[in-house]
Amino acid sequence: MSAMKPLPQILAESEGNRIDVIAQYINEHITKNWQAIFEEKYSQLMDAYKKVGDPAYGTYLNFLFLPIHEQLKESGLKPLPRLPGDLNISREWGNTNDFTDQERWVWSVIEEENGVALGTIVTKVYHDHTQLRVPRPPEVFALTETDQADIVAALSQRSAAFRDAREFRIEAEEYMKNRDA
């Protein structure tokens, strides 16, 4: 994994909006490490994929974000929920008709130790539903909104595809109803 300057040092040296600095830091980490981590952990991920399918991508994201969690903790910051975010409220859509390039948006509010929210980190996760493959690196961007309704409104304004997609929990409930019918 590529070494980077520690986040606490970057935040101390930065004059920019802290949530934007954090997003830039995470994007730099992803750019430098997304492919290497996928390749390094491929056999574990493939084992998980064979057993549970798409939740293996969550395992990949746990590996990818582990160093970020360590840096946030050292900076006195806490993501709520854990990065990249809560699958149940995330939204997904396809960028191709064959399900080989799906896009899921998840998010976490970043709080200081005193409970003050700095903003929200949104992660775009690209994945393939036909095989274990990450077609392109995840991307991260920051929002100043921290209230759930405001976050969804901001994301809906940013992307019509997000606005038109349903929360994962709703899709899962409908799938289970239709499967059992």
Give a structural overview.
With 181 residues, the protein is an alpha+beta fold. It has one domain. The chain has helices at residues 7-13, 18-40, 42-52, 56-74, 148-158, 160-164, 168-180, and strands spanning 77-80, 91-94, 102-112, 117-127, 139-143. Strands 1, 2, 3, 4 and 5 form a 5-stranded antiparallel sheet that branches. Strand 3 (102-112) and strand 4 form a beta hairpin. Helix 2 packs across helix 4 (56-74) and helix 3 (42-52) packs across helix 4.
By DSSP (H or I, 4+ residues per run), the number of helices equals: 7
How much is the radius of gyration in Å? 17 Å
**Ends: how far apart?**
48 Å
Number of domains: 1
**Structure class:** alpha+beta
SSE arrangement, N to C: HHHHEEEEEHHH
Low-pLDDT windows of residues: none
Strand content: 15-25%
InterPro entries: DUF6022
